[in-house]
């Protein structure tokens, strides 16, 4: 096994996860990225280059998660960012869709940590992605708001159960240059106008915040909002 830093990014084939993977790969780390299919994960890993490899892992199929990660032997830095979006409201509730997303995000993330914890050391750390919808719901965010609240609580129990491994969460506002948002300016113009910085959060902002949460050895159990001060308005 190499003495490089070993990074695992669950949901590293797209968006924030891929951006984080590119950053760690450029620093010479050993990087494992996952997506739902091995084919796509391997293809993206090849595009990223360096010491990056891709694994297939579907967080909605929890019983397969440990086997999917059996080839990961050392974890210094873990980022859990995978998401399947669910647009849902209480009045027109679709429980099956809500259950799929909540299961993948909360039970799925926890199952990954359960599988990888024995391969983490005292100096290891992890960051879980939630989102600002935890504090500021928007129409249709019922499941997302619930999931993000769950992530906020989950880091607290992870810190206490798995000490001294550190766990933190990042809660971004809308990240306008992610694949989901970059072609939808009608969706983010209002957010930009009300944000005190008059700019939107970027993937670069998220990657820098994730690196800080992963690497500062006294940051533990923190739920960090990254929103340009949007919550103050
Ligand atoms: N984008 C934003 O504006 C924003 C704002 C606030 C919070 N966040 C949070 O930031 C995180 C990343 O968001 P993003 O927009 O960057 O993500 P994204 O581009 O939509 O990428 C989602 C990732 O999750 C993987 N994935 C999807 N379903 C999966 C499943 N069932 N099992 C395993 N992996 C699965 C995808 O892999 P494959 O497609 O290869 O399967 C992909 O790598 C999310 O947790 C989200 O809640 C994002």
TrEMBL record:
<dbReference type="InterPro" id="IPR002347">
    <property type="entry name" value="SDR_fam"/>
</dbReference>
<dbReference type="InterPro" id="IPR036291">
    <property type="entry name" value="NAD(P)-bd_dom_sf"/>
</dbReference>
<dbReference type="Pfam" id="PF13561">
    <property type="entry name" value="adh_short_C2"/>
</dbReference>
<dbReference type="InterPro" id="IPR051122">
    <property type="entry name" value="SDR_DHRS6-like"/>
</dbReference>
<protein>
    <submittedName>
        <fullName>SDR family oxidoreductase</fullName>
    </submittedName>
</protein>
<comment type="similarity">
    <text>Belongs to the short-chain dehydrogenases/reductases (SDR) family.</text>
</comment>
<keyword id="KW-0560">Oxidoreductase</keyword>
